[in-house]
Amino acid sequence: MRENIESFCKQDYPIYEILLGFTEPSDSAIIEAREIAESLPDHNIRIVVSSKDIGANRKVSNLQGLLEAAKYPLLVVSDSDMRVGADYLKRIVAEYQSDERIGLVTCLYKISEPRSLGAAFESLTIALDFIPSVIVARRLEGITFGLGASMIVSKGALESIGGLPAIAEHIADDYQLGNRLWKKGFKIVLSDYVIEDVVGRMSLSEHMIHQLRWARTNRSSRPTGFLGYGITHLLPFSALFVIVKGPDPLSLSILGIAIFIRISQAIVLLQKVVCEIRWIKWLILLPVKDFLSFGIWIWSFLGTKVSWRGEKYEILKGGKIKRIRPINSGF
Questions:
Q1: What's the gap between Cα 149 and its chain centre?
Q2: Are 316 and 172 spatial neighbours (Cβ–Cβ below 8 Å)?
Q3: Does CATH number 3.90.550.10 belong to domain 2-213?
Q4: H or E stretch at 196
Q5: pLDDT for 260-272, tens place per residue?
Q6: CB 248 within 8 A of CB 221
Q7: What is the DSSP string of 229-250?
Q8: Where are the domains of the chain?
Q9: What is the pTM of this model?
Q10: pLDDT digit string (tens) for 168-181?
């Protein structure tokens, strides 16, 4: 976390402030956050502890506390597991200010150096499923949503959609923020800046919990698109065709083509987006990941409950959520 936060503190940008938000005064990470602030006295770093509760989404309540403390008109939102280069802020601000119609600029993200099996599956899923789906969405309909890893928006644009309370009951706050701005006539831009997601040693169960939450969140936000997303599972469908039809030349050819397409896609994205050659060793997990992703896609239709930030929620109609109870683990 220290290295992640420090990356935001060392931006090649003239004047800006860093606000670190917490909802609980007892959060152990506050101690480290204060140490970071003290170690960088020349940077404008403030810690904001807010007990505000404006809705079921506790992250949005945290953001509300930060919004009220922020003194500048442009807001950049990111998570504590993200890491950026020194040119990050300069580049996304330039993109935001390039057109007065722009209401939000958002960024893709990647995991370049997975350090565990769960992190490797997470990295493969982001690179080979998530990033292509966003790029396809941009090509087919344009970007109509935000991605929570990185978003820049002005206070004025935010106020035009009713502020943060308007999205505080929704699980997909990033999607809602971007989509509501888009419906107001603002332009949503997908930046060419790709930031780094540092997930640490994510376990396989943590990966599955995260992906199931993402799947059910996506299904509630974009039901038609999420249903159509099923056809992208080339490898599982090809293998199923071999099982049903038998291993004849046609079925085996289709399976071979599916494998070739997936490996080619992986190599292209490895070179163009991830830009980390050491990542290639994890490609041996690609078939397993594809079947696991297919299973999670099916599983997402079999319930509405998700685990998030130590609590369990039920996703209601329209993507709103209801907090059920605190949890320690499980699906």
A1: 5
A2: no
A3: yes
A4: strand 195-197
A5: 988 888 888 777 7
A6: no
A7: GGGG-HHHHHHHHHHHH-S-HH
A8: 2-213
A9: 0.88
A10: 999 999 999 999 99
